[in-house]
């Protein structure tokens, strides 16, 4: 019996398993990380292709079954099984990751891998199709969103293979896609908290212009609060805050349900204005002075009329650097 809650859908099509292994480009010297080996259909082919397989499996019954399957075979001393939740496991060194994962851990797992050090060569992972489309989406594509931007900051991502439900037992409710993730080397040196705060704001409404987003009262007041905090810090310390990575909860880069709703752009502009207020008529001189500062940055880079849904990685990085140069920060 299989546990639905653990996302147990076993790959039953041997040709598909072969295709995945072949597309992975495994070398005979590779240490391979497999996540959720289940009964070991993929594991067996990985053992044939590489030097060593380290498999992390949550379900103790599956761990036993896996060990039984390879016991007494020439593979047994090249397979290491770690029982546990991959999200809570310290991952060992590996060259390549190949996995048919439980879809409920897609987002945290992706970011765990992207932050893994030292960086691996590539990861070949089966995801729910919709998640895969968002991972690989490019500026202007329908599914381009925070997840696309955040993933592609750290990796090159490409779609390899569509996989129908009937390749699994029991069949899941959704279609799947195999994706290749190659970490960028060197890793981009951005403060990930700052980046996350910035991207969240740009994608509040991905089809609105940045000019209108950065006029929103709550966006301006957040920026102003950060600005004042930093100024106070700097004058008291008489030093600058380095642009170092202060460590973050990497799960925040992913996609919670809440964010998905936030990105739907399903409310009319009128509703938005009513909710966020429009402080064009604000009499407070200080507020509009700060607002001018923020909008000045957008103008400088000609971003006022642009929309997050169409901006490339480079453009986001450039705009963030302009904000930072003006002393404006997002974390
Ligand atoms: N790799 C096998 C295959 O392709 O036939 C099974 C894949 S099945 C979709 C996912 C596997 O991941 C299951 O064996 C499940 O027990 C395991 N699993 C679920 N959650 C996990 C977690 N948090 N950490 C590690 N393994 C997990």
Short description:
With 331 residues, the chain is of the alpha/beta class.
Walk me through what this model shows.
With 331 residues, the protein is α/β, with parallel strands linked by helices. It is built from 13 helices and 9 strands. The chain has helices at residues 14-24, 41-49, 60-70, 106-114, 129-136, 146-154, 192-202, 210-213, 217-237, 257-262, 269-276, 285-300, 313-325; strands at 10-11, 31-35, 52-57, 79-83, 96-100, 122-128, 155-163, 168-169, 176-183. The strands form 2 sheets. It has a 7-stranded mixed sheet, with helices on both faces. The chain has a two-stranded antiparallel sheet with strand order 1-8. α1 (14-24) runs parallel beside α2 (41-49). The N and C termini lie far apart (47 Å). Residues 6-11, 35-38, 41-42, 56-59, 62, 85-87, 100-102, 105 line the site of S-adenosylmethionine.
- Which descriptor suits the 3D outline? elongated
Structural class: alpha/beta
Radius of gyration: 23 Å
Q: Bound small molecules, which ones? A: S-adenosylmethionine
Mean pLDDT level: 89
**Spatial separation of the terminal alpha carbons:** 47 Å
Number of helices: 13
Q: Using DSSP, what is the number of strands?
A: 9
Widest sheet: strand order?
4-3-2-5-6-9-7
Strand count, sense and barrel status of the largest sheet are: 7 strands, mixed
Hey, roughly how much beta strand do the residues contain? 5-15%
Low-confidence stretches: 239-248, 257-283
Multimeric state? single chain
